[in-house]
């Protein structure tokens, strides 16, 4: 029947028969494209014209079953269902040419908002909608947009054909979307925006860069122009005719007009790290500082703005209505109609004060406080805080009797011009300094620290422009949320206060100590710095922000989520860190039922030649985590109106379509892009760099070789891993790399990382235990393992024996310090000070022919301090002090271990105490009496060390602050020839050398994951006398804040030691220009964020970054693997997997290798213990004749009174002059100058008061001045002991 109906004579005129359809007009639909349906071989091709679009309406399955190919029957059922339920309209005709064996079908999509259907298309059963979405997912990818096919002609070339809804070519990751968001454009036209753009913003002291001005204007536009915006959940989509419709990819809903949604008054300021987000926020605050918040919108309640003056005395309709309503509520009965207010005539002053507080914008009242004070109006102005009455929005039940209904009581809500800024606790002080730096004085700042209570709500609202709080302090207010108490009104009996003829009632009735005053203010703005913490919906911070009444909200962060990282400023695009998805290719290839490509017929594939097919990237759990964080920010913190009203909307329409098992649905990435663009403000790097360029950043990885003793430690650790792998046969939980041993494996990696710097263990990493059973290991391995494992075991045992038999290595591992090689230290002094055994006192090795000793860094530091105070302290004194110091250290260790044993932490660590700790347990450490006794012994030992170090007798008072001298007499010390060489850590040697080379002109920022490593560096810096500061978890917060300021402002402190986890965000340390990472950082974003502490706006020097790694170890492999993942996987974004999950790294760690003997060290330290000057002077004195010998010397005497000079070379009577230098006692040296033939005709007066003796050779000579009395015999100066002429003996101390 249908076949006959299609028959028509080719030359017959066109028929315009109309198929009657009362609901739809085909020209109002989206002309999506065409589909070619395969036909059976025995059809008769004829062309028949249909009405409206000149094609025939597609009949149902019953009419087409005999015509179409059997494989297309299921597809025809889909078309039939969608047509029957008004999702599509299809028309058809037979094809010709290359499509002569196909039925061409035009597909029209019907919009849900079609006019004149009484909304029927929006009201459908859930079962029909679910089935329709499933069928549309099959239909839409088959639609081809080809204008020739659409007109019934032959198919065009593949370059002119495209799929209407095929595989999306947008395969960006969330990180790539984030990086490609368009930069904001200063399109806002207003006097305020123009002032910002021109750089004439008042109250902002600093000048903004052009891109910063654009960001501020964009923020201002979101705040002040909250007009409707196109719904970002719908994407524009065009038909063959070019007409635009709007499509929702998750629900397959089509609309002819795009919905308009309310724009949020806030968003996410996510500019790149180091581009000045802080000053942007302050620019926004300063630009709007006089703007006051407005009452919270209400559909049921009119909320007029009032002040105490207007509420009590003004006769405006709003004031009268508010008073009447409140009076009615307090009385709990309806107000009588004849109840009238007593008429009051407000004064002009009262009207003026009311206007100033309710219309503050543009008045600049803050600049006229002096005038108000002169007129005695300032107190009245400050007390007249604007407010409104907030009634709970409860719809009235009209069925209730008015007699039974009780209207709820309101709570007073103060209006304010203030902004709350919430910052991490470690950035509180830095933000305070930034406000003072960038803003003018009239900006009123209140800093709420953790222990500081909040002022009353009226003061918070009236007296401040910025309220700065830490995140922890702000979150603490979440527990004071009993808002019901704020609605418990009673008639106010507070007495009015007269302020210069203006009466204001200063009401105290509405204060509740158990309710936070934050709940009584309608805040203008809330800003949360490092706002990624708002990505969790369960924190007190987010919960409190939802309960507070806030007009505008901003999140400020360079890293909104884990993988959205603003780290490219100044470094280029190479900082995209791809995700390793090599194992997902098989799952990415679509073709399964329900996937976008599974429904395309072979004819479609042959006719629509597309670009070579590439698998769709399937989004991972990390992507879902980022999406959930973004959703929490928008729904729970920012409370975007569109998503806050339906908390599941973001998940259903954004996340689920992206997380489809076969990859993101077509156009779902476009939806995410639109959503992010509506909420985020950020500039692309190219636009930022048009305005400002940072200094050059150079970053290199420095490969080092381990010190011989550190190499033994490394090989021992590798040997233990090898023995474990072989003995466990690499199976079961005994194997370190078993999946259940993730925590243990992580600890091994941390220990190995520490060994790359320096690591100690009093158990010698179980080397002795393994060697005891070495025969057993060899026997078991020979029986059940391969020859390769047997060879590996023999190598492991060899390295274990080599280390365990080395007494020096064993001695060093018993002390948690990096020891320094010291050359030239006297043996007796060394033995008095060293904690090491006497057998390792003098060492030579392959690289050093001169014997050296290993010295404790703290002892070297103490020795230098001691000699600086007492430069001529003899060897006996040094020995005595050394033994006292060692005794004090032992007692201090015993005391600390006693406290640890008595603490809960110590009891938990009982099984992990070292050998020395176990020896100390021989004492009854748990006895309080014993602990008291040990403490007293420690105090006595400390007093003795302090006393003898100062050169006093026991019981003698010692000044608490002593100055150190740089006297040339240091050259006479027994330690003058001591020189400090390399340490046992090659990384520390490199750091010391780099600091010695550059610390005079540049500052250093040194990062490490390990606080122990930073402690080692700190000890070494003390030895070389370079001052440093620490920023670790052990340092309390207040001290950390002070350290940041000190480092930035003081030239004394040249090195900042920072734990890596504290270097992520917020800190500004631009005074440093050299950065050192003590170990490679696997997550490159963490590394880059740390670098951003230095490489940011304000940096004027080139920044040099060095990452230290040990050659041929897992550190070198880590660096190579990380770079391979970053460059080899392109720019697909995402974060690197955990290092223990990366196959390459895991294989390297699981297959231990041993390091060969190291080459000679590239860096050889040679540092005089007492300084270069003392060393040079000591060498000079060593070259002089021995004590008692005489040496002719040219000298010069100068009479300071007569300014006469006498040169012995010009005086014949001074023949045979000589100088004699010899030690006298511990504090002085005698210098004797003999005038053997001092002639009576000499011009030198016998009563010379001051003589200067100048000794060549210059510049090594010293100018020495001493007062000489008129009677040399009776002169009592202890520094000068003259003898009778012609011999003068002078004692002096330099």
Short description:
It is built from 44 helices and 40 strands. It has 1294 residues and is an alpha/beta fold.
The main sheet comes to: 9 strands, mixed
Mean pLDDT, to the nearest integer, reads 76
How far apart are the termini? Answer: 125 Å
Number of strands: 40
Helix content: 25-40%
| Beta-strand residue fraction | 15-25%
User: Helix/strand/pairing class, anyone?
Assistant: alpha/beta
Tell me the number of helical segments per DSSP (H or I, 4 or more residues long): 44
Organism: Somion occarium
Region (Disordered): 1192-1223, 1260-1294
Domain Helicase C-terminal: 991-1144
Pfam family, one: Helicase_C
Description:
- Residues 991-1144 form the Helicase C-terminal domain.
- Keywords: ATP-binding, Hydrolase, Nucleotide-binding.
- It comes from Somion occarium.
- Residues 1192-1223, 1260-1294 are annotated as: Disordered.
- This is Helicase C-terminal domain-containing protein.
- With 1294 residues, the chain is of the alpha/beta class.
- Helices cover 35% and strands 15% of the residues.
- The protein contains 44 helices and 40 strands.
- The strands form ten sheets. Strands 12, 13, 14, 15, 16, 17, 20, 21 and 22 form a nine-stranded mixed sheet that branches. Strands 23-32-31-28-30-29 form a six-stranded parallel sheet, with helices on both faces. The protein has a five-stranded antiparallel sheet with strand order 25-26-24-27-33.
- α33 (857-869) packs parallel to α39.
- It is flat and about 110 Å long.
- The termini are far apart.
- Mean pLDDT is 76; it is low at 1-20, 334-340, 395-404, 572-613, 905-931, 952-965, 1129-1133 and 1187-1294.
């Amino acid at each position: 029947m249908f076949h006959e109906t299609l028959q028509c004579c080719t030359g017959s005129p066109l028929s315009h028969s109309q198929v009657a359809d009362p609901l739809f007009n085909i020209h109002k639909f989206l002309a999506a494209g065409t589909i070619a349906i395969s036909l059976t071989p025995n059809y008769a091709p004829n062309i028949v014209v249909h009405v409206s679009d000149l094609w025939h309406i597609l009949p149902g399955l019953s009419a087409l079953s005999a015509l179409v190919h059997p494989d297309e029957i299921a597809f025809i059922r889909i078309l039939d269902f969608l047509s029957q339920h008004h999702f599509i309209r299809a028309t058809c005709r037979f094809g010709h040419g290359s499509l002569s064996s196909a039925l061409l079908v035009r597909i029209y999509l019907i919009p849900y908002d079609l006019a004149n259907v009484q909304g029927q298309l929006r009201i459908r059963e859930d079962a029909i909608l679910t089935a329709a979405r499933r069928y549309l997912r099959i239909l839409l990818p088959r639609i081809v947009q080809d204008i020739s096919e659409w007109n019934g002609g032959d198919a065009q070339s593949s370059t002119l054909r495209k799929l209407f809804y095929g595989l999306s070519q947008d395969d960006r990751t969330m990180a790539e979307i984030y990086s490609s968001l368009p930069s904001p454009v200063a399109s806002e036209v207003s006097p305020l925006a123009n002032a910002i753009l021109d750089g004439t913003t008042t109250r902002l002291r600093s000048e903004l860069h052009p891109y910063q001005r654009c960001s501020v204007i964009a923020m201002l536009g979101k705040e002040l122009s909250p007009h409707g915006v196109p719904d970002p959940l719908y994407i524009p989509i065009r038909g063959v005719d070019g007409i635009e419709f709007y499509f929702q990819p998750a629900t397959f809903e089509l609309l002819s007009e795009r919905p308009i949604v309310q724009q949020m008054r806030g968003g996410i300021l996510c500019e790149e790290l180091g581009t000045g987000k802080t000053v942007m926020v302050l620019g926004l605050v300063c630009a709007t500082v006089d703007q006051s918040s407005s009452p919270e919108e209400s559909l049921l309640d009119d909320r007029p703005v009032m002040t105490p003056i207007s509420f009590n005395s003004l006769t405006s309709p709003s004031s009268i209505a508010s008073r009447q309503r409140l009076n009615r509520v307090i009385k709990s009965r309806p107000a009588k109609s004849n109840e009238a207010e007593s008429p009051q005539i407000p004064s002009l002053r009262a009207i003026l004060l009311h206007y100033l507080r309710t219309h503050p914008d543009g008045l600049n009242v803050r600049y006229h406080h002096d005038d108000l004070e002169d007129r005695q109006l300032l107190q009245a102005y400050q007390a007249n805080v604007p407010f409104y009455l907030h009634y709970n929005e409860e719809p009235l039940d009209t069925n209730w009797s008015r007699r039974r209904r009780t209207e709820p009581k309101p709570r007073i809500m103060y209006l304010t011009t203030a902004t709350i800024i919430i910052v991490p606790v470690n950035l509180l002080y830095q933000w305070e300094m930034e406000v003072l730096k960038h803003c003018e004085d009239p900006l009123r700042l209140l800093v709420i620290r953790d222990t500081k209570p909040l002022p009353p709500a009226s003061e918070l609202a009236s007296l401040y422009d910025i309220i700065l709080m830490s995140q922890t302090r702000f979150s603490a207010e979440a527990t004071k949320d009993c808002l019901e108490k704020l609605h418990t009104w009673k008639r106010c009996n507070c007495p009015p206060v007269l302020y210069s003829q203006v009466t204001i009632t200063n009401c105290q009735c509405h204060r509740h100590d158990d309710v936070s005053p934050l709940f009584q203010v309608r805040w203008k703005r809330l800003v949360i710095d490092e706002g990624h913490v708002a990505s969790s919906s369960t924190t007190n911070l987010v919960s409190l922000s939802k309960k507070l009444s806030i007009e505008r909200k901003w999140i400020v962060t360079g890293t909104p989520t884990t993988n959205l990282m603003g780290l490219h400023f100044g470094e280029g695009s190479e900082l995209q860190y791809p995700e390793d998805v090599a194992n997902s290719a098989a799952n990415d290839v679509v073709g399964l039922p329900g996937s976008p490509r599974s429904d395309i017929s072979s004819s479609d594939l042959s006719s629509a030649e597309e670009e070579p097919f590439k698998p769709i990237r399937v989004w991972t759990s990390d992507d879902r985590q980022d999406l959930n964080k973004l959703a929490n920010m928008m729904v729970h913190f920012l409370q975007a109106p569109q998503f806050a009203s339906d908390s599941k909307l973001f998940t259903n329409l954004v996340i689920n379509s992206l997380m489809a098992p076969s990859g993101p649905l077509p156009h779902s990435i476009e939806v995410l892009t639109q959503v992010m663009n509506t909420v985020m403000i950020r500039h692309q790097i190219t636009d930022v760099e048009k305005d400002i360029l940072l200094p050059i950043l150079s970053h290199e990885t420095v490969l080092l070789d381990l010190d011989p003793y550190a190499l033994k430690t490394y090989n021992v650790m590798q040997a233990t891993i090898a023995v474990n792998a072989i003995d466990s046969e690499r199976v079961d939980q005994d194997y370190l790399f078993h999946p259940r041993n993730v925590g243990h494996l992580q600890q091994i990696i941390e220990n190995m990382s520490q060994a790359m710097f320096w690591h100690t263990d009093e158990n010698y990493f179980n080397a002795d235990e393994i060697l005891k059973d070495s025969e057993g290991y060899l026997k078991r391995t020979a029986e059940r393992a391969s020859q390769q494992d047997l060879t590996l075991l023999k190598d492991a045992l060899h390295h274990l024996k080599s280390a365990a038999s080395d007494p020096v290595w064993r001695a060093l591992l018993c002390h948690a310090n990096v020891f320094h090689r010291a050359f030239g230290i006297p043996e007796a002094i060394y033995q008095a000070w060293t904690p090491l055994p006497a057998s390792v006192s003098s060492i030579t090795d392959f690289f050093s022919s001169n014997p050296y000793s290993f010295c404790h860094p703290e002892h070297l530091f103490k020795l230098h301090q001691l000699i600086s105070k007492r430069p001529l302290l003899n060897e006996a004194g040094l020995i005595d002090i050394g033994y006292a110091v060692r005794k004090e250290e032992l007692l201090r260790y015993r005391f600390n271990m006693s406290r640890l044993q008595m603490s809960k932490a110590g009891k938990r660590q009982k099984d992990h105490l070292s050998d020395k700790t176990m020896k100390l347990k021989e004492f009854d450490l748990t006895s309080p009496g014993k602990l008291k006794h040990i403490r007293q012994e420690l105090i006595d030992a400390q007093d003795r060390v302090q006393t003898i170090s100062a050169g006093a007798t026991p019981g003698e008072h010692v000044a608490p602050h002593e100055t150190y001298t740089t006297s040339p007499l240091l050259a006479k010390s027994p330690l003058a020839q001591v020189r400090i060489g390399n340490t046992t850590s090659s990384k520390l040697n490199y750091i010391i050398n780099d600091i010695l080379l550059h610390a005079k002109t540049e500052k250093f920022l040194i990062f490490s994951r390990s606080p122990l490593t930073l402690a080692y560096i700190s000890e070494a810096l003390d030895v070389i006398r370079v001052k440093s500061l620490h920023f670790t978890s052990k340092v309390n917060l207040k001290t950390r804040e002070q350290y940041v300021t000190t480092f930035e402002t003081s030239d004394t402190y040249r090195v900042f030691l920072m734990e890596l986890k504290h270097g992520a965000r917020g800190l500004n340390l631009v005074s440093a220009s050299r950065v050192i990472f003590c170990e490679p950082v696997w997550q490159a974003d963490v590394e880059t964020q740390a670098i951003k502490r230095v490489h940011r706006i304000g940096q004027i020097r080139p920044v040099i970054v060095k990452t230290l790694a040990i050659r041929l170890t897992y550190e070198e492999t880590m660096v190579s693997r990380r770079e391979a993942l970053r460059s080899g996987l392109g720019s697909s974004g995402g974060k690197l997997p955990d290092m223990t999950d990366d196959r390459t790294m895991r294989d390297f760690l699981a297959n231990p290798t041993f390091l060969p003997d190291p080459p000679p060290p590239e860096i050889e330290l040679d540092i005089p213990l007492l300084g270069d000057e003392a060393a040079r002077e000591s060498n000079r004195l060593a070259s002089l004749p021995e004590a008692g010998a005489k040496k002719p010397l040219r000298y010069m005497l100068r009479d300071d009174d007569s300014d006469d000079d006498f040169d012995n070379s010009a005086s014949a009577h001074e023949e045979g002059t000589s100088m004699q230098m010899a030690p006298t006692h511990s504090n002085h040296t005698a210098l004797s100058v003999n005038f053997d033939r001092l002639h009576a005709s000499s011009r030198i007066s016998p009563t010379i008061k001051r003589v200067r003796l100048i000794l060549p050779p210059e510049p090594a000579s010293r100018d020495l001045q001493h007062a000489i009395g008129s009677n040399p015999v009776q002169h009592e100066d202890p520094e000068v002991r003259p003898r009778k002429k012609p011999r003068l003996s002078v004692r002096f101390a330099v």
